[in-house]
Amino acid sequence: MGVKQVFEQLDAVCKPGAILASVRHRWIDAIAAFTKRPEDVVSLHFFSPACHAPAGSGTRREDQQ
Fold first, then answer.
1. How far apart are CA 27 and CA 8, in angstroms?
2. Which of 61, 10, 15 is closest to 38 using CA atoms?
3. Considering its fold, how many domains does the chain have in total?
4. Which of 5, 23, 52, 56 lies 20 to 30 Å from 11 when distance is taken between CA atoms?
């Protein structure tokens, strides 16, 4: 199953307003386009190991900048 199919299925089964996240920040615009709720799709990355760097980062989609 590819990324497109995963996000299409998530879009179909998750409640409205649920945040759909991916670590594939370079593809976030394409991933958002696979859903009917692009405003709820985010890129999220946690630094590892978290005990040494308890932080995360996010990336905005092109239409949010």
1. 15
2. 61
3. 1
4. 56
In three state form, how does the secondary structure of the chain look? Answer: CCHHHHHHHHHHHCCCCCCEEECCHHHHHHHHHCCCCHHHEEEEEECCCCCCCCCEEEECCHHHC
Q: How many CB atoms lie within 10 A of CB 42?
A: 18
Domain holding 31, by residue range, is 3-64
CB 36 within 8 Å of CB 11: yes
- Of 25 and 7, more confident: 7
Whether the Cβ atoms of residue 17 and residue 40 lie closer than 8 Å to each other: yes
Query: Which pLDDT belongs to residue 50?
Result: 56
Per-residue pLDDT tens over the stretch 20-62: 999 877 889 999 999 999 999 998 876 666 566 555 555 566 7
